[in-house]
Amino acid sequence: MAWFYLVIAGALEVAWAIGLKQSEGFSKPVPTAFTLATMAASFYLLALAMRSLPAGTAYAVWTGIGAVGTVLIGIVWLGEPANLGRVLSLALLVAGLVGLKVSSA
């Protein structure tokens, strides 16, 4: 269950990062409420995952899912650039996440 919690926590991190962008510095009430709610849920699930996963692995995977997911949403929905450097960097992040998962099994 810990890995399941961690993946959901990472997905919620993506949600709150995008919500933070949409809140425009917490100046819009609905995106701000969304951001705070998804942030709290993400931290809660991360804490549950850390009950049985090593802290370093859990935190690195959580932030990695958040980083990769946020960049992908930025490229697909927010019109951010998808140049070779960004794509290769994402591939390295994903390789690192897979490596942490495999070495923690």
Automatic annotation (TrEMBL):
GO terms for molecular function: transmembrane transporter activity. Keywords: Cell membrane, Membrane, Transmembrane, Transmembrane helix, Transport. Signal peptide: none annotated. It comes from the Bacteria. It is found in: Cell membrane. The keyword Membrane applies. It holds the Pfam family Multi_Drug_Res. GO terms for cellular component: plasma membrane. GO terms for biological process: xenobiotic detoxification by transmembrane export across the plasma membrane. Its main location: membrane. The chain crosses the membrane at residues 33-50, 57-78, 84-102. It is a multi-pass membrane protein. InterPro entries: EmrE-like, Small_drug/metabolite_transptr, Small_multidrug_res. Belongs to the drug/metabolite transporter (DMT) superfamily. Small multidrug resistance (SMR) (TC 2.A.7.1) family. Gdx/SugE subfamily. This is Guanidinium exporter. It comes from Crenobacter luteus.
